[in-house]
Design brief:
The protein is mainly alpha-helical. Helices cover 51% and strands 0% of the residues.
Length: 130
């Protein structure tokens, strides 16, 4: 006869919405909190080590998903960033339609693109890359 909390401390049942189990699947919804806006800051490891570890695990999984879903050239641009929020913000800054200089550069590259010695497939692939 112990208190009710003793049964969950040693067990594997965790009720924290940010906890990721080894059996979590990438297509499942992890939690209902918004995680991409940077509003959930990483807890201090010395004050809340379990919360900090859970946050880091969730962030690492989201970073992995983002990096594997990007084209290799784009992933190379953001691979050095440490949080999913930083990656998301960098991509938004680079590829949002509010980035007028980048849009101008892309339009120039498309306008100057010629097939030249490229095969149709290679030319199409290069054009589609824009």
């Amino acid at each position: 006869m112990g208190d009710d909390n003793s049964s969950t401390k040693g067990g594997s049942e965790v009720v924290d919405p940010l906890f990721l189990n080894h059996s979590d699947h990438p297509r499942l919804v992890l939690c209902s909190k918004k995680l991409n806006d940077g509003s959930i800051k990483k807890p201090k490891a010395d004050k809340k080590p379990l919360d900090s570890a859970a946050w880091q695990q969730c962030n690492d999984m989201m970073v992995s998903w983002l990096l594997t879903s990007l084209e290799p050239d784009v992933a190379d641009r953001v691979i050095y960033l440490t949080t999913a929020h930083e990656i998301w913000e960098d991509l938004r800054e680079c590829f949002s339609q509010n980035n007028v200089p980048r849009l101008f550069q892309i339009n120039l590259e498309i306008a100057s693109l010629t097939q030249g010695q490229l095969s149709i497939a290679a030319y199409y692939t290069k054009l589609k890359g824009f």
